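Working notes for the structural subgroup meeting. M.R. asked for a predicted model of this chain before we commit to crystallization trials. I am recording the input and output together here so anyone reviewing the notebook later can reproduce the run.

Input as submitted:
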Amino acid sequence: MKRYSFYFTRMVVLSGILLMMGIVGCSKDSGSSNPVTTPSADSNAVTMQNTAFNPATLTVSAGTTVTWTNKDNMNHTVTSGTPTAPDGLFDSGNLGNGGTFHFTFGNKGTFQYFCRVHANTMKGTIIVQ
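Returned structure, recorded in token form:
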């Protein structure tokens, strides 16, 4: 009888732990003024949203691949250089909603880029250290 009691106690304790883990894991923000934010899975990501690059400036290490994702309902490009002097290093072409572009920065330096469609307002910089 003691053997069954031991296993029963272990099961009750284990069930309690699993239940608590489930409760904590499934909790959600109740709309407080300080919402919980989840860090980005990819810190080398730039989004195109609200006709802007976010972040506008990103610092990465040499050899890093940066991914741009269009989250707007309009086309954008990721074009290296400036609107008056594109440098030809990279150009995504038109990216529709959900489109992505990847570029690996092999050398240290500061790389400017812009959107050909919104050249006056959409500009960004990648700093490679």
